[in-house]
Amino acid sequence: MAKTVHVTVDGRTIEAAEGAPLLQAMLDAGIHIPHYCYHPKLTIDGSCRFCQVRIEGIPKLQISCNTPVRDGMVVKTDDPEVHTVRRGVIELLLLNHPLDCPICDKAGECWLQNYSMEFGAREGRTIDPRRKRGKRLDIGERMLLDQERCILCRRCVRFCNEITKTGELHIFTLGDHSKLDIYDDARLDNPYSMNTADICPVGALETKDFHHKIRVWFLEETASVCPSCANGCNIMISAYRNRIWRLVPRRNDEVNDTWMCDAGRLNYRFVADPERLRAPLVDGAPATWNEALDRAAGALGDFRKRQGGSALGAIVSPHLTNEENFRFGELIHALGVQQVAMAVKRGPADDFLIKAEKAANARGVRELRIVQGDDDGIEALLGAIESGMVKGLYLCGDDLLETVPADRLERILAQLELLIVQTLRPNPRFARAAVIFPTTTFAEKDGTFTNHAGRVQRIRKALETPAGWLNDGEIFTALLNAIDARGASFALDRVWGEMARDGNVFSALDFNEIGPRGMQLAAAGK
Amino acid sequence: MLLSSATHDRIRAEIAHYPNPRGALLFALHQARDELGRLGRDAYAEVGAIFGMRAGEVAEVASFYSLFTQPSAKAVIQVCTNLPCCLRGARGLVELLEHQIGAKAGASSPDGRFAISEVECLGSCGTAPVVQVNRNPYLENVTPDLIAELTASPEAAIAARHPAPIISIIPDGVDGYLLPPNGAKWLTLDDYRNHGGYQAVVKAGQMTPKDIANLVKDAGLRGRGGAGFVTGLKWTFMPPKDDRPRYLAVNADESEPGTFKDRQIMERNPHLMLEGIMIASMAIEANAAFIYIRGEYVDAYQILRNAIGEAYRAGILGDNALGFGRRFDIHIQPGAGAYICGEESGMLESMEGRKGQPRKRPPFPAQKGLWGQPTTVDNAETVSHVPSIIMRGADWFKAEGAEKAAGHTLFGISGHVQRPGVYELKLGVKLRDLIFQYAGGLADGRTVKAVIPGGVSMPVLRGDQIDIAMDHESVRKVNTLLGTAGVIVMDDRTCMVRAALVIARFFEHESCGQCTQCREGTGWLYRVLTRIERGDGRMEDLATIVDTASYLEGKCICALSDAAAWAASNFLRQFRPEFEAHIEQHRCPLPESFSI
Fold it and tell me: Where are the alpha helices (DSSP H) in B440-495?
């Protein structure tokens, strides 16, 4: 750990880590210093020249990004030369900027707009023609480039060189002819390409997905966690009119720095999928929530009575929250279920963010000790169904459909006498299900996920569900109350209270203290 | 494979000289372009494969350098249109060429034989106007007749004028030590040894590194590359010797318009420079020295390469280098037509096979220089003073110059003088004497209107300010700097707006593009000055020039932004009524001025 030292900025003393970039120290202390090229997760470039400050004892202004903090440093930002820098950078950048803000996706969160308002002149004085460059260039599967808007801060170039190490972006030629571009057929298609749009301070790099979709100032942001793999990248859900318009990464140095993969970013359409189940189905027909709960509770109770709990199996979903799965664990325990498994869809992984398990909370299920075994109990459960020992199944989630070969799955489902399902979409395979409950997505509820490394992180409700809708945890709770007359509630702090008493690893954490960066489970390992 | 196996062999052999193969990237691109006539995707891919680089990476580097981006033709005729050449009629040559080959500048002739390219300073201002065809030796003092010859047969025209005329002189009464006697060239090792060469390195070999540095510091040698920093002092900035290799990087990227002196040493006295490099390397305990020479200087490059080869064969360089008692190497790297590579850290980037964009400091080269190792950067002329200092001592050197500006320097003088050229003179010579006594004054009836004392980066003087001594301290009294001591003289017919515009165009063309203010500001200054010169200026544009200069000055990574700011703001300050006249009359009030 670097030593904490003191720096004076315009008469105010701030604390900072010795050797840290002065710019970062000032930003951390809430001192607003304009900058473009500096990015905390990229090497220092020092070329935008915007963050210059006066430092006592040094005759020339210094770029604060490349100035390491030293104890006793006296910094001045309210200085005529510093004002000249700020006015100059803005006036010069605007000389050739196309000013096409009405059709720019970045408008409203553009650093050129914001700084122009703050430091720029109120009228332009150039009458010379603006530079013409490529617009809306298709530079990748998911990315567009506008060279006229580019301010050549090289953040995206450094991202591709330093983070993905794929190096697709180049700045060609020199001087004011400099031009950001890809070369030939080496397109910007790396699995993290869309991060370049986030770090672009202007609208030079835009994602096709968000292109001309909506003005950003309409968006409401909700801090959450990406549901698409076990990494649990921190995100903001941007919603408007109860619909998600984009996911963007949110900084968490313990998990994803400031990045996320393109696949995760684009995986939000299922939330608004028109095929989604909008009401429970009882014996294949739409039913009210109460009808469905009654039928499910009745069927489960009867089945237990007739066959015994050990003839009932359960599949836990790695997409549900820790709280929901805790409650599901209680439910199946009350039902006497012994064969419990978890199906997790797997896919490609890399050594950066993308994990093989394509679900956000498999680790949470394991930490709750609901499932056991290297395959999370799947083979044992399927074998028990195939052997006729298990004749009923409470199935949460769709991952089973993609982890078990279709013909085997069909045989297994055909053998079941009772099938209760919680799923996203109706599926002909579930035709024989007694009850199908619609499941609730990550964006529609509160709770926590435990990522692959054992970090417990909050997800938050960004979208409203229809009146009367029950999320998965509420379904489990209602069934538990019906079967076991518990009078349980699914209020999260209550659930956490119960989780703590249960003595699992979560008992060491306090739900209300899980901040925006999450909390690490004390006991590592499964 | 596009490239011949011989080319591949040459590239591989060159790679062996560098701690990192990429040191040979620019060399390889020259080889590829020389062989193929143009560079494109396949060439970049093939060169990239040699260096473990993707085609796009190579293309990005190449796109930075004008020699790799010239139009494609059998003979690319590059006409220097920077100020000294423009002052002596370069524009007329371009028009003549356009007429003769039937293509505009920047394009190729319909038959593909010729292309015309207007290029920035070729570093031969004393023989302006200058033309270079492909990477052949220059055609100097080019006349319309020569253009006719050239378009008839480029090969014959070039061969007939090679080698170039000697334009450097030791005037009577000067005890020259940089240049060989007038008219002579000491190209071979024997030439040099017969005149006392390589004795200083032996003598320095008896001294400690510290003593060498102190002697050169005491002598008061100041860098001749433009900044005038005390050389011996710079050497002491190197960290204490440890396990890491250390380098001397020699800046022979002479490209400051008005400056054409280093070439005279390299083409007439190459071993002097090598000996100076060796002694400087002893002082900083360098393992090797790398000379970065501008890519257009093909003769000087070959002469130095030959001299280095001779030195290796004679055992002066290599395993038991003369005076070192250990291994010491010198290699030479070609640049490729980018002015900014003359800036020391831009040069280091280019030497490492990248775009020549200056590095932010810290770290400084002495801490982290070439290939990340402790490095000292010295100008080619600067090191050439060192052998004489070793042999003749600090007091002698101090007596050969002005106070606080010891020794001789090679003054280059160009523009509207009768005898442009390079003069070896003591620092402190009067500017008036330089113009009128040595350079023969102006044409009959003409008077001095403006003088740039040290390359176009330095603030311009009016004709009534030439009674100053040409040394670092004296020129400060008239608010300018000695720079490279390349003096450009403009007579009373010369349009100052036009002169400022040519310089602004140069900086716009040569800004590396990384710092916001320099990239955008040099372009704006150029566009505003273009409008004023054309007669479309507004009075408020003059305030824009002053403001833009304030945005640039002192705000960027390197001094190019300062130079661009000073040039524009000082021409305006010194000659404001002429700018106003352009705006009021909507035209140039000086009908006889040079054209651009």
Answer: 472-476
Q: Does A172 touch chain B (CB under 8 A)?
A: yes
Q: Cβ contacts (< 8 Å) between A176 and chain B: which residues?
A: 508, 511, 513, 519-520, 522-523
Spatial distance between the Cα atoms of A366 and A348, rounded to a whole number of angstroms: 21
Chain B nearest-CA residue for A129 = B527
CATH 3.40.50.300 matches A126-272:
no
**Does B167 reside within a domain?**
no
A62 touches chain B (CB under 8 A): no
Peptide bond into B163 cis (omega under 30): yes
How many separate domains does chain B show?
5
The CATH number given to whatever domain includes residue B571 is 1.20.1440.230
CB A518 within 8 A of CB A457: yes
Tokens matching residue B589: 């009030």
Helical spans, DSSP H, in B123-175 = 144-152, 154-160
Count the Cβ atoms, other than its own, within 10 Å of residue B238.
22
Distance of CA B307 to the CA centre of its chain: 21
All residues of chain B having their beta carbon less than 8 Å from the beta carbon of residue A151 are: 516
Closest chain A residue by Cα to residue B518: A175
> Would you say B299 and B174 are in contact if contact means Cβ atoms under 8 Å apart?
no
Decide: B48 and B60 in contact? Cβ < 8 Å: no
d(CA A412, CA B226): 84
- Top CATH class, A281-520: alpha beta
Tokens 């591709």 correspond to A160
Amino acid identity for residue B290 in this structure: F
Q: How far is residue A288's CA from residue A325's CA, in Å, rounded to a whole number? A: 24
**Please, what sign has the CA dihedral across residues B179, B180, B184, B185?**
negative
Contacts of B95 (CB under 8 A, 6+ apart): none
> Mean per-residue pLDDT for A131-141?
97
In the prediction, which pLDDT does B34 show? 93
Strand A137-138 to A143-145 pairing: antiparallel
The neighbour count for residue A311, using CB atoms within 10 Å, is 22
Structure tokens at A375: 């395959």
Q: Do B60 and A152 touch (CB under 8 A)?
A: no
- In the predicted structure, residue B451 carries a pLDDT above the cut 90: yes
Q: Does B368 touch chain A (CB under 8 A)?
A: no
Nearest by CB to residue B511, choosing from A50, A151, A174, is A174
The answer to whether residue B596 sits within a structural domain is no
Is the CB of residue A176 less than 8 Å away from at least one CB of chain B? Answer: yes
In whole angstroms, give the CA distance from residue B572 to residue B460: 10
Q: What predicted TM-score, i.e. pTM, was given to this entire model?
A: 0.96
- Taking contacts as CB-CB distances below 8 angstroms, the residues of chain A near B553 are none
Token output for B383: 């090191």
Question: Where are the alpha helices (H) located in B352-455, listed in sequence order?
Answer: 380-399, 431-433
Give the pLDDT band (50/70/90) at residue B286.
Answer: very high
- Label the pairing between strands B75-80 and B114-119: parallel
The per-residue pLDDT for A168 is 98
Q: Mark out the alpha helices in A174-256 (DSSP H runs).
A: 195-199
pLDDT in tens, B185-226: 999 999 999 999 999 999 999 999 999 999 999 999 999 999
Name the one residue in this structure whose structure tokens are 């996920």.
Answer: A449
Mutate to test the interface with B, among A37, A38, A43, A47 (most CBs of B within 10 A): A47
Boundaries of every domain in chain A:
4-92, 126-272, 281-520
Residues B186 and B251 in one domain: yes
For residue A358, what are its two tokens? 């394509």
Count helices and strands in chain B by DSSP H and E runs? 24, 13
CB of A44 within 8 Å of a chain B CB? The answer is yes
- CATH number for the region A4-92 comes to 3.10.20.740
> pLDDT tens digits for B525-555?
999 999 999 999 999 999 999 999 999 999 9
